[in-house]
Structures are given as structure tokens and as C-alpha cells.
Amino acid sequence: MNPVRNQLAAPTASSALPRPGGADIEIRRATPADRPLVDEFINATYEDLAPFKMGRRFDWQFLENPVRQSGLCPYWIAIDKARGLVAGAIAVQEGNLLSRGHRHRAGWVVDVMVRPEYRGQGLGHRIHERVANEFETMVTLTMAPATRRIIEKHGCVTLGSVIQLDRPLHVTRGTASRYLRHRTKNRPRLNSFTRAALRFPIVPAICCGLCNAWSAAARLLHRTPRSQIQVTEAPELNASDCDFLVRLGQDRQNLFERSPEFMQWRFCKSPDLQYEMFRATRGAQTAGMVVLRVFHAGEMPVGTIVDILSLTADREILDALVHHAIRHFTGRVELVDAAASAPDVVAALRRACFAKTRTMKPTLVSTDPRLVQEVSQDAGKWFFSKADHDWDQVHIVPL
User: Fold this and answer.
1) Residue 304 to residues 60, 178, 255, 268, 296: CA-CA distances in angstroms?
2) Hey, what long-range contacts does 316-319 have (CB within 8 A, 24 or more apart)?
3) Residue 2's pLDDT is what?
4) Is the distance from CB of 275 to CB of 308 less than 8 angstroms?
5) What does the pLDDT read at residue 7?
6) pLDDT at residue 239 greater than cutoff 60
7) Phi-psi region of 105 (alpha: psi -120 to 50; beta: other; left: phi over 0)
8) In sequence order, what are the residues at sequence separation of 6 or more whose Cβ sits closer than 8 angstroms to the Cβ of residue 93?
9) Residues 300-347: pLDDT tens digits?
10) What DSSP string runs through 98-115?
11) Cα(394)–Cα(399) distance, rounded to whole angstroms?
12) How far apart are CA 212 and CA 163, in angstroms?
């Protein structure tokens, strides 16, 4: 992979873009006075997901983040001054990136959105250019094709694959139909074919039967690991947990930092999702952690392994954490979902009969040439999970 250095124009007070009708677009950071305009934009563009993008969620994600670097809101808006509305926006969820053990200020590119009537004019590229001029390092994990084109145009390093894996527990016909419609929604022809096929009851019945046969085989193949590892609930972090998180950052040197402050903010203070944290102990010391979430109302009946943390290649700990997650979810969800980039974590999930369902290709854009070089050399050595980016959020799936 060849790193492409970010080469952008110097930041200006505002950026202008003509819109049909002669109006100008001003691109800048949002201020508290812009909040009504931002709320209207979110309502207009996110529809059913709007309640999970504004209000307390907005405050928590962008204003209450413990690694926030300044008093400025990390939310850039493009305002059509003639119409008095937000035409597009890009936000940055701030974080600390560890590369070879060195901490860098960085952020996740999230909520890239342009109103339909303003698309096709390069507005997304212009907003991203402004953000990149003001924010040194940006990483994106999950993204729409249009967002990837924006990021690639401005220069990026493509990181190693992040694998999404699933394991069915007990799938019903309704869930099988719902899943197939959802997974094909962005492919019109395939979606039309899928919807036509699902009119025949035999189709969801076959899909459901295959999933449950897989589940039965997994129960036979995936036996309870024999070890002295204890996995217990961790509603609050103790001193041993904090010590483990320090050792984690030293051991897995290429990741977004899992500090105690991050863990408390990300999993204990989230306004719309309920997480459960568990610690794995070897002797009296914390040797691993796993964060789990049961589906929110309106989502698929899925349990998510949001974060699974261990020192590199600690197979005993990884197996104990994965086994605990499956046991915790059994009877509560129909499917278990996880994601990982680290080979040892992927291997632990595969040993538990998880199967790959999707592959992500994260990207990094930075104006720091040394970091770009390091990241390019270590592109396949990064640690990512569903705790990164804003991957784990409410995903409403119609019935």
C-alpha cells in the first residue's frame, strides 16, 4: 500500500460553493447558536434515525467526549445563507490514536451527510477539505461508497481489513426475512428479487432452517473451554482493570486508546444504549475485558460483542470471553454479531463457529508525514472492533 500524503489548500475563513439559484454556501464549525439549524438538518436527513443523532446523543458524542481537545464543537456545517439552512455536515468523534506506542490527537469521521438537493456539486468534498485543514488526523472505519470517494480524493492510507462475523443462536422466519431485505436494500435489483422470493413461505423457512442447523452444529463443535479463568460483571472499573488497560495500550501498539476515561464515557455514559462490561481474571489480576449489548427497540434481535480486549495471542482469555458472550446472549437474542481486525481475536471468534459476513477497509488521512509513514508500514497491524468509530449505534431495521 502506498501512502498518499494529504495535500490541501490552506484553511480560509469560509468556503463558497454556488448552488442552483445563485446562493452561496458557507462552510464552518457549528456554534451553539446553530443548534436549531443542525437539529432541523438532522431531522430532515436522518428520518427514523434522527432521535438517535440529536439531543443528548449529540451532546455526549461531540461535547462531552473526555478527549475533546478544545472548546470548539467538532461538527462542520455547510450553510446556505440565502435559505437559512444546513445543506451538509461532517462531524469528528475525537479520540487518542496510539501508533507504535505514541499518542496522537485524532478523530473518527462520522455523520457525513448532504441534503439530496445539494448532491452532485462536490459539497461533501468541500466540507471534508475544510475539516482536514483543521483536524490533523482522521480515521474512517465504516462508510458509504460516496464517503470513501471523498476520502480517497483527499489522500488516504488504507488500513488492514476489519472482519464482521456472526453466529446464529435460534433464528425465526420473520428475522430471516427482515435480515435479507435489510442486507440487500442498497442493491435495488437484488432487493427486488429478494422481496419477490420472500413472498413464498418456503424461502424464509429454508433460510431459517439453514441458520438453525448451523447453530446446532456450532453447539456440538464449540465446547466450554477448560480453564481457571473467571469472567464476572464489571459495572465499574477497579484498579486491576485500569492496570490492564495500560498494559493493553503497551501491548497492542496500533489502536485507538482504551483508557479508563474512554471506557467510562463510551460504555457507562452512553445516553441511548445499555452496555454490560465483564472482566476476565487470571488469579487476582484482570487479564481481559468484553463489552456486550442486547438490541435496542426497532433493531434486529441481535446481541453485539462490542469490544473484546486481551493482550496479544492470549488464547485462553479470548476463548473464555467469547464463550461468556455466547452464554450471556443465549435465550435473549437470535444472532450474535462481532467485528475484529486482530488475527488472534478473529481466530477466537472462528473457533466459536462465527462466520465472516462482511469486510471493512478503514482509511486514515493525516497531515503528519511521520504518522502517515508509520501507519503505511503497519497498515495490517491495527486493532479495531465495534467500539471504534461510531459503528455500534442504533440501527433501525423495518419489520
Assistant:
1) 21, 18, 20, 16, 11
2) 316/225, 316/227, 316/229, 316/282, 317/229, 317/280, 317/282, 317/287, 317/288, 318/288, 318/344, 318/345, 318/347, 318/348, 319/225, 319/227, 319/348, 319/351, 319/352
3) 38
4) no
5) 28
6) yes
7) beta
8) 61, 62, 65, 74, 107, 108, 110, 389, 390
9) 999 999 999 999 999 999 999 999 999 999 999 999 999 999 999 999
10) EETTEEEEEEEEEEEEE-
11) 15
12) 22
Task: Name 227's Cβ contacts closer than 8 Å, sequence gap at least 6.
Answer: 316, 319, 320
347-351 LR contacts (CB < 8 Å, sep 24+): 347/318, 348/308, 348/315, 348/318, 348/319, 348/321, 348/322, 349/165, 349/167, 349/322, 350/165, 351/222, 351/319, 351/322
Q: Residue 21 pLDDT > 70, yes or no?
A: no
Query: What is the C-alpha separation between 139 and 126, in angstroms, rounded?
Result: 18
Question: According to the model, what pLDDT value does residue 1 have?
Answer: 38
302 bridge partner residues? 335
**pLDDT tens-digit readout, 108-154:** 999 999 999 999 989 999 999 999 999 999 999 999 999 999 999 88
378 Ramachandran zone, left/alpha/beta (phi>0; psi -120 to 50): alpha
Averaged pLDDT score across all residues of the chain: 91
Asked if residue 70 has pLDDT above 60, the reply is yes
Encode 232-265 in three state secondary structure: EECCCCCHHHHHHHHHHHHHCCCEECCCHHHHHH
Cell 488492514, residue located: 160
Instruction: List the end-to-end C-alpha distance of the chain, in Å, as a whole number.
Output: 42
Q: How far is CA 371 from CA 140, 147, 375, in A?
A: 16, 22, 6
Residue 17: pLDDT above 90? Answer: no
Task: For residues 379 and 44, give the distance between their C-alpha atoms in angstroms, rounded to a whole number.
Answer: 37
Is the pLDDT at 59 greater than 60? The verdict is yes
